[in-house]
Amino acid sequence: MAGNNGLLTALTALRRQLDRDLFPLAIGDVASHRRALKELRGQLDDYLLPRVAAMDAPLLAVVGGSTGAGKSTLVNSLASADVTEPGVLRPTTLAPTLVASPADEAWFTTQNVLPGLARTTGRGRGEPGTLRIVTAGTLPAGLALLDAPDIDSVVTANREIAAQLLAAADLWLFVTTAARYADEVPWGFLRSARERSTALAVVLDRVPQEALEPVTAHLTRLLDANGLGGTPLFTVPEVALPEENARLPEQAVREVRGWLAAIAADAQARAEVVRRTLSGALDSVAARVPALADQADRQRAGLADLRLSVESAYGAAMATFDDGIRDGSLLRGEVLTRWQDFIGTGDLMRSLESRIGWLRERIVAAFMGTPPPDTRLRVALETGVESLIRSAADAAAERTLEAWSGMPSGRDVIERAGAVTAGRLGRASSTLPDRAASAVRAWQAYVLDLVAKEGAEKRTTARLASFSLNGLGLLLMLMVFASTGGLTGIEVGIAGGTSVLSQKLLEAVFGDQAVRALTQAARDDLRERVSVLLEEDAARFTSLLEGVELPEQVSADLRRAAQAVRDHRDEVTTRPTGSPEDAALTGPPGTSRTPGTPEEAVPAPGTPQDATRSDGSAQDAAGSEGSVRQDAARSEGPPGDAPPVRDTPPVRDEPPGAAVRPRSGDRS
Question: Whole-model pTM?
């Protein structure tokens, strides 16, 4: 159709935006949101895109309803051919059957409509998940009937395909019975049709003669109460069939067939049905997409909360490490013992003041099989720092796992990771000890290099030649763990004056200002290395989020796409006021007459009008509102938004459902 390229482009762009998984995590009512996303994709693929691309394509009328309502029998009767297989077993319709005129067969056998369903032809019931295409020469061109599975089937796949087909319909022919017209499940679908402005007609099947008037009147009131006043209502009387797969008598379906034939014969009437349903579908999409965008924002917020919990836990771990290297706790225990060994035997001064003494102690230690005191002190420092790193990482992992386990989204991520991975998340990575040891050794090498460079820059080479580089390096390491970089001085000596002695010796070599700079540089380098270790350990958690992360602009893109659909909506949903189509869309709904005249051709779906009873006497819809709630409650009808009760006499308080006699060999 010319002039709708903008809308088709907007819908195509929207469909691309919906390709991604918008709800990867269990945040809020995620099952409902995922179902809504799936339904929206399906409606775009199955109906909106093909319909907007070909506005003059044949009209698709989906015949749907509850199990045992007689849908298949009705389709056979309307087509005057045995195109589907009715039966008493449930469910009967396993695969939907589409009946079209031979002139329209090519349109439906290709993937124009319902592209996700494979096509089959020929007799038989068809395989589940396929769309069986049959032709009937008695069916007028321009109109196809689709026999859908039961909307309340015990088979989940049948219910899902039924909902999908209804969303792909230009016109929904809803079939119910005198015994089951007040069931709740069908009314949920009817209200959905109302919300989406889907063109709708109701066929009340298997109605005993004595129940015709009261049941029709009560169903009309229920339609009014649920916002479906003016919906065309046809009745099919209870008749005895010679066999279970027999068709209904001609007179029983004359009204429905005449109404459908009038639509098929009138191009303007068909266009108006399409326009009404398309308009409602576009409005529905434009309203549902922003709601999905809001939920996508919640997903992003939930993911941000998970990341924040990781950052918080590992940030606290870094703070714990900072406290550990500043409060002097590392200079206790094993480190203190080795320090005392180092200074108690005079090794410190000898190593600092005599290169020959240092070399002699090394040779003696080699023969004795024991490491020199400075080596034992360095190893003790190394072990203490590694232990502090592991402790901080373990605490961070435990806090993160606890935080995630307290959030539905976090539990979802943990479950996806699997039991083995989840079991390892509560502690630091198994590779952390080795990586921590390597990092600390690299830091110690950096400190020694720092001392050597500082000595060269300060022109203290001669003095350094008489001192041990390792000894000075150990003194600087001790300063890192026992001072604040020299900025505030040493107020309390730790481990018998360890830090005081270290500071004094270093200042004697480099000067006080240089010692402060060296201490700060050594501390910063250690913190940077530990920060990298903790970030790598935290990545075990954040890497689990990478597969479910949503792009930052996803919600904004969805809203823009929905707005583009709104902007181009009028390309296919408007027509000149007072056009001939207006006359074709008016007429008394709910009559038992054949709408064969032009003014009765296509009653306006969803248009409030006077409800006409089956006996021909007009009953004002407002006048019947007073008994709607009472009648709906007594008949266990659907909980609709009934109008306020008024002081008007009820038409009839009790629907005669109990008076309906079951027929032997129920029609499908």
Answer: 0.68
Gap between the terminal Cα atoms of the chain:
38
* Token output for 414: 């943990």
pLDDT at 643: 37
Give yes or no for a contact between 165 and 171, defined as CB atoms under 8 angstroms apart. no
Q: CA 71 to CA 666: how far, in whole Å?
A: 11
Task: Give the pLDDT score at 466.
Answer: 45
For residue 28, the one-letter residue type is: G
* Cβ neighbours of 365 (radius 10 Å): 15
In this prediction, what percent of the chain has a pLDDT beyond 70?
69
Range 257-272 burial, b when 16+ CB lie within 10 A, else e: bbbbbbbbebebbbbb
β-strands 59-65, 171-177: how paired?
parallel
Which value, in Å, is the radius of gyration of the alpha carbons in the chain?
A: 41
Confidence of residue 215 (pLDDT cuts 50, 70, 90): very high
For residue 374, give the amino acid letter: D
657 DSSP assignment: G
Of the CA atoms within 13 Å of residue 411, those in its CB half-sphere come to: 6
- Cβ-contact 125, 118 below 8 angstroms: no
Distance CA 406, CA 401 (A): 9
Dihedral, CA of residue 61, residue 64, residue 68 and residue 70, to nearest 10: -20
Order of strands, sheet of 171-177, starting from the edge strand that comes earlier in the sequence: 118-121, 130-135, 97-100, 143-147, 59-65, 171-177, 199-207, 233-237
Distance between CA atoms of residues 497 and 495, nearest Å: 6
Structure-model confidence comparison of residues 455 and 126, the more confident one:
455
Distance from CA of residue 355 to its chain's centroid?
71
Q: How far is CA 494 from CA 500, 520, 535, in A?
A: 8, 19, 32
CA distance 106 to 25: 43
Tokens of 365: 């230690």
pLDDT digits (tens, 9 = 90+) for 321-357: 998 887 766 666 566 566 556 555 444 444 444 443 4
Ranking 9-18, 57-66, 499-508, 542-551 by mean pLDDT, the lowest is 499-508
In the numeric block, the tokens 């409509």 are attached to 113
Tokens for 272? 């108006």
List the Cα angle 245/249/251 in 5-degree steps.
155
Q: With beta carbons less than 8 A apart as the criterion, state whether 510 and 450 touch.
A: no
Count of alpha carbons within 13 Å of 100, Cβ hemisphere only?
A: 20
Report the distance separating Cα 47 and Cα 44, nearest Å: 6
Residue 483 has pLDDT above 60, yes or no: no
Tell me the C-alpha distance between 592 and 613, whole Å.
8
Q: Determine how many CB atoms are found less than 10 A away from the CB of residue 218.
A: 30
Nearest CA to 95 out of 47, 42, 149 is that of 149
Predicted confidence (pLDDT) at residue 613 exceeds the cutoff of 90: no
Four-point Cα dihedral 517, 522, 526, 531, nearest 10:
20
